TrEMBL record:
It comes from the Bacteria. GO terms for molecular function: DNA-binding transcription factor activity; sequence-specific DNA binding. GO terms for biological process: DNA-templated transcription. Belongs to the LysR transcriptional regulatory family. Residues 16-73 form the HTH lysR-type domain. This is Gcv operon activator. It comes from Jannaschia donghaensis. NCBIfam families: PRK11139.1. Keywords: DNA-binding, Transcription, Transcription regulation.
Length: 324
């Protein structure tokens, strides 16, 4: 028997007003009518009225009103997660629609080192050819969400055999490799592979998260040389290791993606012909279908051309698969 305070609708599948559901979702999340009202910028009385109308629509209470707090009833507990998910989906859809219309803004996420050493030095070219596109960068290693974080393109480094999410399109793969890099003055001192055993070593630990990482021991092993316990300065960020090598502090097993600009400008040299290929690469991802949008397509094409420019650094080198 239903309390006379509520009634069962004869149209049980008819959705209630969106404003009432929004009021419930906020109140269920905060377990406070006052906090929910503040979030939605309405008075507590107005929010309470919306929730009451929702309860009448359902024919059952959604909250237990206690002395200074509220708690969800069984019906409220059933509705709360679905309501939250529904509003998250609506928000994501709304943001996606706005991004389609706002073709003049392109938001890219990449790691801090790749942004600083690879993207930033090249952006003048893209900006000069596409003044109509405003680029925004989120330089972070945190995995951002395309929908909730308003991301158009993600550049991520990870294992080569890593699968992409089914809703994403891999627009480009940028290969990585490493080789000893040093200031030109040091190249006069360390002219043989054996002489590097006496060099001041800079350790780039940025790829240690990989199951099959690369190390100085791997590089010397590719030449049939056993290595003693090498000592030197360790950097967790690859760009910091590259900066230290440019200053002449030592020799780094440098990543081509981050050292290529310095090599091209003559601030670093890579005099030895052996390079190691890690079992990892950069994946350039975007939501499926987004790759055809004019702004996204322009940036992806430019990215592909710039990545192709690095291929010249491979000329004359012996490429060895790390761990192979």
């Amino acid at each position: 028997m239903v309390s006379d305070k509520y009634y069962l609708s004869d149209m049980s599948d008819r959705l209630p007003p969106l404003t009432a559901l929004r009021a419930f979702e906020a109140a269920a999340r905060h377990l406070s009518f006052q906090a929910a009202a503040g979030e939605l910028n309405v008075t507590p009385a107005a929010l309470s009225f919306q929730i009451k109308s929702l309860e009448e629509h359902l024919g059952a209470p959604l909250f237990r009103r206690l002395n200074r707090r509220v708690e969800l009833t069984e019906a409220g507990l059933a509705l709360s997660p679905q309501a939250s998910e529904g509003f998250q989906t609506l928000t994501a859809g709304w943001r996606a629609a706005k991004r389609v219309l706002d073709s003049g803004i392109l938001t890219i996420t990449a790691g801090p080192a790749f942004t600083a050493k690879w993207l930033a030095p090249r952006l003048f070219d893209f900006a000069g050819n596409h003044p109509e596109i405003e680029l925004r960068f989120a330089a972070t290693l945190r995995m951002l969400d395309f929908a909730t974080d308003d991301i158009d393109i993600a550049i991520r480094f990870g294992p080569s055999d890593q699968d992409d999410p089914p809703d994403l399109h891999r627009a480009l793969t940028i290969e990585e490799w490493v080789t000893p890099m040093m200031h030109p003055d040091l190249a006069q001192k360390y002219q043989t592979i054996e002489s590097l055993l006496e060099a001041t070593i800079i350790f780039d630990d940025s790829m240690k998260f990989l199951k099959n990482s690369v190390s100085w021991a791997d590089w010397f092993d590719a030449h049939g040389l056993a290595t003693p316990d090498l000592h030197g300065t360790h950097f967790s960020q690859a760009d910091h290791a590259i900066d230290a090598a440019q200053s002449g502090a030592g020799v780094v097993l440098g990543r081509i993606s981050l050292g290529e600009a310095a090599l091209r400008q003559g601030n670093l040299v890579a005099p030895f012909d052996t390079a190691l290929i890690p079992r990892a690469n950069f994946r350039v991802l975007c939501p499926k279908g987004a790759e055809t949008r004019p702004g996204t397509r322009a940036f992806l094409d430019w990215l592909g051309r710039e990545a192709g420019r690095m291929e010249g650094q491979r000329d004359g080198r012996r490429m060895v698969l790390a761990g192979g």
